[in-house]
Here is the input.
Amino acid sequence: MADIIDGRAVARQLDDKTKAQVDEMLAAGLPRPGLTVILVGEDGASQVYVRRKIKACEKVGIHSTEHRLPADTSQDDLLALIDTLNADPSVHGILCQVPLPDHIDTRLVLRSIRPEKDVDGFHPVNVGRLSTGTGGIVPCTPLGVMILLESVIDDFVGLDAVVIGKSNIVGKPVANLLLDKECTVTVTHIHTENLPEIARKADIIVAAAGAPELVKGDWVKPGAVIIDVGITRIKGEDGKEKLVGDVAFDQCQHARAITPVPGGVGPMTIACLLANTVQAAKAQLGVHEGETGNLYHDAPDRSMHSSTAA
Ligand code: GUN
Here is the structure.
């Protein structure tokens, strides 16, 4: 039976580490890391996400500020605010929640955030650093995917990894991170032929296609590790709504380990945002850390992953 990778437990562990780093910084007389979140407009889902992000900061001791701007805010006013925040030494991370209203050029706005403060890892400089393996800030969901993989895999060298989905936010960065770990990576997408056959060769499957229960049991090699990034609300057979991932979870019990939906990748995203904010603060304050080559930083505690047989 597959181990269920407990994203909530791994996220809690990461939060504990982030909080310990904040405490260490304060004990060393350094300023408290600060994150500013910008929300333009009234999008309901965005309001919920922003509230969660702000609340999470409190848990680990990051100072958070919030700028809620009306939907008709001009692009120039938004860029002027970002300029001010870019220049403010107490702000180490800037996150501009997307989607932005249609009259605003999202790419221009995201590019206007200083790369060192871009805790989303969306700035082309950070994208370039990631794709050349030269550091920078890693986007939160791909970072979460890698930390979950590191929580069950010791040695990635030579493993066959198949990424399903080629988005700039998940598929491409995950592929780059897996390459950095010396995996043999195949990136697949909606036009890929023989996808089941390709997936069946994989030691690692990262499903990020946004297609509910796309990956069937017979796409999965026995002993593979599956990370399911998808999350879609569908109507179940009983007529009730439920959340499902891109993987037919119940069919994949011959995997070695699998993330559930919900409770897998989802909880990692905010934990990684907090970790990125502290990393950004340290870099801006000139604190240098040893490179472990492991995003998880030290040997993960694997006791939290439960077997489906239990
Ligand atoms: N909207 C939904 N998810 C995200 C995210 O991770 N970052 C930003 N900036 N906006 C989002």
Q: What stands out?
A: The chain has a mean pLDDT of 94. The chain has two domains: 27-117, 140-266. Residues 49, 95-98, 120, 140 surround guanine (CB under 6 Å). The two ends are 9 Å apart (CA to CA).
